[in-house]
Amino acid sequence: MTETISSKNSAAKFLKLDERGRRALESLAPRLQELCSVNPESVPVMEAKTSALTDSVIAELPVIKGEDLESVFSRARKVAKAWVATDIRERKRLVLAFVDTVLANRDAILDVIQWENGKSRGSAFEEVYDVVLNSRFYAKHAAKMLRSKRVPGAMPGLTHTQINYIPKGVVGIISPWNYPFNLAASDAIAAIMAGNAIVLKPDSQTPFSALVVKSLMERAGLPKDLFQVVIGAGRELGTPMIELSNYMMFTGSSATGRSIAERAGKNLIGCSAELGGKNAMIIRADAPIDRAVAGAVKACFSSSGQLCISIERLFVHRDIWDEFVPKFVAQVKKMNLDASMDWKADIGPLINDSQVEKVTEHINDAVAKGAKVLAGGRLVPEVSKRAFLPTVLEGVTPDMQVFGEETFGPLVSLYKFDTDEQALSLVNDTNYGLNSAIWSGDVKIAQSMALRVEAGTVNINDGYAAAWGSIHAPSGGFKDSGLSHRHGEEGIVKYTDVQTVATQRLMPIGAPKLLGEKVWANLLHSYLKVQQRFDL
Ligand code: NAD
Q1: Where in the numbering of this chain does the Aldehyde dehydrogenase domain appear (predicted)?
Q2: How far apart are CA 508 and CA 530, in angstroms?
Q3: Is 256 near ligand 1, meaning CB less than 6 Å away?
């Protein structure tokens, strides 16, 4: 943080940011309240939504009640019926038109994300990038992934067997506040390309990015009710959404995810749960140190550490500890913490007071039990009310909260290790298994270690972007970090019911009368033996 930034912090600065945010929101979603799916007959409760960047009220939005969801889903079911009949090439055209609107409005979108969430502009850009990447990927590949496939049938030559992918119908999506634009759009686009309609409930703190997604989809020509946004409390809307959806896509904490999965299981509907993590990075003794330092700083503090795949545990080999740690700490101390909408800030303020409390609690508890703060450790109120310095801890032990609990903030703990075996055992010593990273000069060793890391994604010589950005590959969590996947073929097939159609020709399957059961069984037996013998 520099002096100029502290002195820039004033009411006038926030007023300017508000003006800029308001202009951006008006240009992207001029009919803001009409974009919220509310039953016109019910008198909606209006709720004021504030900016995490400036704390001012952005707008009042109508909050939906559980009983209003039936009409929302009934509209969704209607539009889903028409949408499933829409040729996939037309779906592709419309999704690519949506990409055009996103690319054309990049700066205004970044302003809205920053205004409502507070994150740095670079982190906000990751959201826009992700939406374009996902949308283009599924627009381009959905037809191939969901094309009916011919497979060998029960009786070669006599059974024609085909696999079909039938859209689920209406997909309910519940998303968190930390990536409000891409978690509103990217999962929805995959489901839309598969032929479904969407009802999205964004986190109550960040509804505006979701409404911008809806507005841009309509601008691109996608049908009006194909993507509906409902604003309301998760506790109130969660159960009716699960009752009314044909599939649930949830992103958020492991505790809520577990409860969503239970309720989805009770209704026997599919559910995807992308949950929390306590992600680890291993820096081996042969790691390229300067690259690893830069990679670790980005992986720990992107989006102020409020990123599900960000690194909270850093394991450094004893032989390079004395070189790596001072370099890492120096880079962290140089990070530019600011509440702004320019590209200069490396890290923005936290979203809300409870995030500040959680980070503070983890630091205080660790320090009280003997940990040492190597960098950061406090708020910088001159920058903004919730501007928290990127923080590095050393000497963390298992009795400290930060050892095993997800902080979900700008806080990383450093640990020393001696062998790969020891590093792997420490990395896997958690109930979570979302993301991980290994830095090494020997890629082969790192790749073989990766097979033993209990995490859905392992980045080698990167922190998170390499795996996340590999859109052809699935992304999801092991253990308490989730169920199912997004990205890749898995990320779209899950939004379909997989159906097998087998057409039997010429003769039914069973013993022909002329042969009798015994001869028929002997024939089948010989057939199986030939297959086994020649490995057919
Ligand atoms: P949260 O679980 O409290 O909230 C997430 C969403 O669930 C919000 O929309 C909220 O309104 C809704 N919700 C809350 N209670 C509900 C209930 N009983 N029924 C239905 N919906 C309910 O999560 P959070 O703390 O706001 O978000 C941060 C968490 O999300 C972190 O643990 C983070 O790691 C995780 N996350 C995971 C991913 C991923 O892809 N794995 C991505 C982003 C965030």
Answers
A1: 51-501
A2: 22
A3: yes
